[in-house]
Write a structure and sequence with these properties.
alpha+beta; 15 helices
Length: 370
């Protein structure tokens, strides 16, 4: 038997999920996207470990300080990983403070050293960090500081916890609602289908951003961060389920008269079992793709609301909240590093799109070549 015959035999006998896996691993950008997203979520999960400064610490005389560079060699030769301390001086022409590296002040960086205290997973006290410096030395500010002298790098890392998780939680809620409503509409049809579709038409006809703005504005500003987080997630999920519900409805309308469904009814299976055990699994790969492509939309929605000041509010830290400092064009021109959170958002959204493209190609696995 030739290699080609063996390949064709493997394809003919492989399960659907194995075929999808073979096709997906051919999509190089999707593989890269998975790796990058795993790094982002790993850093978000262990944010305290990867942060170099406490997010609420204000460093005196370091307001709007530019990013610091890391070095291995000084004028004396190899020093290991270090950074220079900085000096601040007022420019008499522009009346702006300028920061310059003080090459006489070399500050070495320690890996897995002790720094500020934090709580791992929210309840385990810890003080070890991936990068650490002596507490009595000038702070390490990899991406500069904001207008209050707080470390932007550390705030971006902690902000990823809200911005990345709100996409997953919001999509999960939208997925449950969309699948439930779509299944009822497509399986039962008739008057039930008509009522549900008209409700969806009404929701879709409402402009999304004004709706979110109205609902978000109703959230009391004195609510704690956790409560506001869950309320924003629910608001983002209120209109995110409609497209998925229509997709599920269309699939069920096409499948509900198939022979395997008739056989399930004849064997005494109830409506719930037919939907959950026979109909939904038959196009589960399409549902997975829909979920993947919905996550970046949720992330962008939270960022937009927080950027406009009607989403997460300080002292909460998310990428959208951090971008509030970049609303002023003069500030951007003077301190362009305050736009850094936008770069993280762009990378995450692109990676999710690459991942979704790979899955979308892989759900048609019968053209696979492995």
């Amino acid at each position: 038997m030739t290699t080609e015959d063996t390949r064709q035999k493997d394809i003919a006998t492989a399960s659907q999920w194995k075929l999808i896996y073979w096709k997906f691993r051919q999509h190089k950008m999707a593989i890269v996207a998975i790796a990058v997203l795993l790094i982002f979520y790993l850093v978000a999960l262990f944010a305290g470990f990867f942060a170099v400064n406490d997010i609420n610490t204000r460093f005196a005389n370091m307001q709007n300080a530019p990013p610091m560079g890391l070095h291995l060699f000084s004028d004396k030769g190899f020093e290991g990983l270090f950074y220079y301390g900085t000096t601040r001086q007022l420019n008499q022409k522009t009346y702006r403070y300028e920061y310059t590296a003080d090459k006489t002040n070399i500050i070495h960086i320690k890996f897995f050293g002790k720094g500020f205290e934090y709580k791992l997973f929210g309840f385990i006290p810890a003080s070890r960090h991936f990068l650490a410096f002596e507490h009595n030395q000038a702070p390490l500010l990899l991406l500069g500081t904001d207008g209050l002298g707080r470390c932007l790098f550390s705030r971006i890392i902690f902000g990823s916890q809200i911005s990345l998780s709100i996409g997953l939680v919001g999509v999960f809620i939208s997925f449950v609602i969309g699948v439930l409503v779509g299944s009822i509409s497509g399986y039962f049809g008739g008057a039930i289908d008509e009522v549900i579709q008209r409700i969806i038409d009404f929701i879709v006809s409402i402009p999304t951003m004004p709706l979110w703005m109205v609902l978000s504005a109703a959230i009391p500003r004195d609510w704690p961060v956790t409560k506001t987080y869950f309320m924003i997630t629910i608001i983002l999920s209120l209109v995110g389920w409609c497209s998925l519900a229509r997709t599920v409805r269309g699939k069920l309308l096409a499948l509900r008269e198939e022979d395997f469904v008739a056989a399930a009814r004849a064997s005494g299976a109830g409506h719930l079992r037919i939907i959950t055990r026979h109909l939904l699994p038959s196009f589960s790969s399409h549902l997975i793709v829909s979920i993947t492509l919905s996550v970046p939309r949720m992330i962008l929605s939270e960022t937009s609301l927080s950027f406009l000041g009607i989403g997460m509010q300080p002292p909460a830290v998310s990428w959208g909240v951090l971008l509030q400092d970049a609303q002023n064009l003069l500030a951007i021109a003077s301190y362009p590093w305050q736009l850094t959170p936008a770069l993280f958002i762009i990378v995450v959204v692109l990676m999710y799109n690459f991942f979704g493209d790979g899955l979308r190609d892989a759900v048609d696995p019968y053209g696979v070549k492995h």
